[in-house]
Amino acid sequence: MFSNLWVPGILLLGLVIFVHELGHFLMAKWRGVRVLRFSLGFGPPMLSYTRGGTEYRLAWFPLGGYVQMAGDSPGEDGTMPGSREEFLSHPWFGRMLIALAGPAANLVTALLTMILVGLVGVNYPDYPNRLGATPDTSVAYRAGLRAGDRIVGVAGTPVGTWVQIFLSNSKVPKSRPVELAVERNAQRFSIRLTPDQREPLFSSLRRPPTPPVVGDVVTGMPAYKAGLKEGDRILAVNGKPIHDWDELPPSLRSNTDRTVHLAVERGGRRVDIDVVPMNPDGSVAAHGQIGIRPPREGTFVERYGLGESIELGVRGTAAMIASVYRGMWLTISRFFYYHEYVGGPLFLAQAASEAARQGLDSYLQLLALINIAIMAFNLMPVPVLDGGHVTLALLEAVRRQGISARTYARFQQVGLVVMATLLVLILVNDPWRVLQRQRALGRASATIQETAKTAPRNPAPEEKTVAPTPP
């Protein structure tokens, strides 16, 4: 979708920042607070113009933005502003609304984006409609299906891919029987399933084996830092041979937070790579992930109507909110475990570039996720963030008395220290993550060159690859 690494990231971050600051700007105008400056980015202005007493500028460093309002800090003599047109003198309820408007704009944008994903269409990895292993103890075998069979129709609907088999079944009411059209050795026959047989049979269907070849490496995850590359074939995990992609997840899951020795074939040569599977979001299902995906053999696009898209958008946005807050809690509660996965501009640019390559739906979902992350981050009760202003406004409402200029200044100083510390961490993490990968790639390359001097080249036969769930 985009060829330049930075273009997807700049577009994504710019839109998120614009929406956030626009929320503050519009609410401040509505509440009668004078806005002196609306800036996208920090530093000297690249472009600027003034209208209606407000300077609008595009600055050189696209790492954020801000809305500067009249009276948003104590005067030089230590006194607080005194006019309702000035932010700190505005009633507490109005200040809280202005502070909440930015995160609220991000939330609304995320919801609308997720609804748009449903209308545009969701890309699912897809595979041929041929059956894999069908043990004689399986429901599919007892129903008459065998390995190598092709399911070409479900309930009278022709199907040509794996995803279409299950989608066609899901569109038939569960209380009704379903007839499968099956092709075997150029011969077709039908299998009729009762309502009670449908779910057990479809659950027992398996695809042909998938070679354990890396199709994509997720930026920032353990595989990225360990130096795994697209096209690598995983031969063994801790000495245990791996023949099928589906063998990888249990092998990695059983070694969460422990070093795993991978034997990898790269360019016809073997190289050993150490990686530590992690639990990225603290859930049981996420145990033992290293951040790799196999190549896609095909893609199925499912588009939804407006009603379904709204429903999916609401559910998807709620799931993102839960995931982001869970991640924030894990980062705070287990800082030394998760802090290295905190990313900055470079990380965002890489993630946006990856999402853009995968398709418009992936890019839009990342856009929604970043909006939710910005919302959640800004609502933290930390001075200089929106959550800090909300905290002060609520404190004033409870005390029925505003805080002093000195207390406000100290409160802001604490916030600046916290934000500066976080900024340093982010700016260190980004290049360090890239440096780790480059070192790992260099070690692997040196190993391959060394073995090439002593061993003949013996490339593995080519195999087609398809894509199940990433480990």
Describe this structure in words.
By secondary structure, the chain is an alpha+beta fold. Among the domains are: 128-204, Pdz3 Domain, CATH 2.30.42; 216-300, PDZ domain (Pdz3 Domain), CATH 2.30.42.10. It is built from 13 helices and 14 strands. It has helices spanning 6-31, 92-120, 139-142, 162-170, 195-204, 222-226, 248-253, 306-333, 335-338, 345-358, 360-378, 386-399, 405-454; strands at residues 35-51, 54-69, 122-126, 150-154, 157-158, 178-184, 187-193, 216-217, 233-237, 240-241, 260-266, 269-275, 292-293, 298-302. A hairpin with a 2-residue loop joins strand 4 and strand 5. The longest helix has 50 residues, at 405-454.
List its traits.
disordered C terminus, Pdz3 Domain, 4-stranded antiparallel beta sheet, 471 residues, 14 strands, alpha+beta
State the gist of this model.
With 471 residues, the chain is α+β, with helices and mostly antiparallel strands.
CATH class of the domain at 216-300: Mainly Beta
Oligomerization state: single chain
List the total number of helices: 13
Q: Output mean pLDDT.
A: 85
CATH architecture of the domain at 216-300: Roll
Structural class: alpha+beta
End-to-end Cα distance, whole Å, is 25 Å
The CATH superfamily of the domain at 216-300 bears the name PDZ domain
Tell me the Rg in angstroms: 27 Å
Summarize the SSE layout with pairings.
Elements: H1 6-31, E1 35-51, E2 54-69, H2 92-120, E3 122-126, H3 139-142, E4 150-154, E5 157-158, H4 162-170, E6 178-184, E7 187-193, H5 195-204, E8 216-217, H6 222-226, E9 233-237, E10 240-241, H7 248-253, E11 260-266, E12 269-275, E13 292-293, E14 298-302, H8 306-333, H9 335-338, H10 345-358, H11 360-378, H12 386-399, H13 405-454
Antiparallel strand pairs: 1-2, 3-14, 4-5, 4-6, 6-7, 8-13, 9-10, 9-11, 11-12
Helix pairs in contact: 1-2, 1-10, 1-11, 2-8, 2-11, 2-12, 8-11, 10-11
